[in-house]
Description:
single chain, 350 residues, alpha/beta, Rossmann fold, 2 domains, twelve-stranded mixed β-sheet, 28% helix, globular
Amino acid sequence: MRFLGWILAACLGLAPIARAEAVRPLPVKVVVLTTFEIGADTGDQPGEFQLWVEGLPLTETLDVTGLRHPARWSAKDGVLGVVTDMRARPRESLAALIQSGRFDFSKTYWIVAGIAGVDPKAASIGSAAWARYVVDADPIYEVDDREIPSDWPYGLYALETDRPNVKGSAAGSSGMVWKLNPELVDWAYGLTAGTALPDTARLGALRAPYAADPAAVKPPFVLKGDVVGTTRFWHGEKRTRWAEDWVKLWTDGAGTFAMTDCEDQGVLDVLDLYAKAGKVDFSRVLVLRTASNYSRPPIGQPAFPRAFHGEGAMAAFDSAYRVGSVVVRELSEHWDRYGARTPKAKTSGN
């Protein structure tokens, strides 16, 4: 029957239909994952994505089924840029990307590069943190703040427990904590620790009220610091205390809360899932979060009005690209070195 089909096609002047399996997936060296763009990908006010598109540059546009925002691609460098969208949507976007069949992710390095809230104990607005741990804070019990028992520090606690600061479980919901490859994290930090980050008088003015927190008043810098991911957008002194405790709890004391965002728990959950299926290499995942605002007000000041500023966001966009692009270029330009072997820091440290 197949032979007759070919004869019929030839008689009708039709070209044979190419088999789907004959189309080779594009081998990708590095994927940059951002969560939103304010307007166009180039030429206007930037969000998380634009500086990557213009700066690397990512000159080709690719429509991928399941992604609301077109991906950008540099065939010369083997670098793919993706907007996952925010909060819960990155899970479906990332799954669609991996399952599209258009890309070979078997040796790919993944870099999450987005803005976040920062604990004033950890760093200042504009700073950039490479995460060692990402901790999920979505599967959680929450008591109405007006009804919290008097001896509880806050009304948030783990599933399968009955009070705060007890590690529970979230079977069927989440892995709860992901430890990133410490050698890769140390390498990325060592490569970028000296990166000059933007600072302005206006950023200095935003830092000034936090004089009681030495890290919060420093000019922007690169650090290693861990992430709480939750689709809830939160702010305040008690919630920051909870985030500090939550990271300590789920990392068994090894992690230190630095950044809070809405997407990393979903991204890591999906990458971990597809790594177990052999589609991606989880040891090649990096998370870079840059501070656009503080997670709480200065000590002694009210939580409202919330201190979210355009100046901080612009600095965070810039820092993410300045720091992250150093790693992207090093990986893509020296693929003969990093394609087969994941890099390691010359010396490890904090």
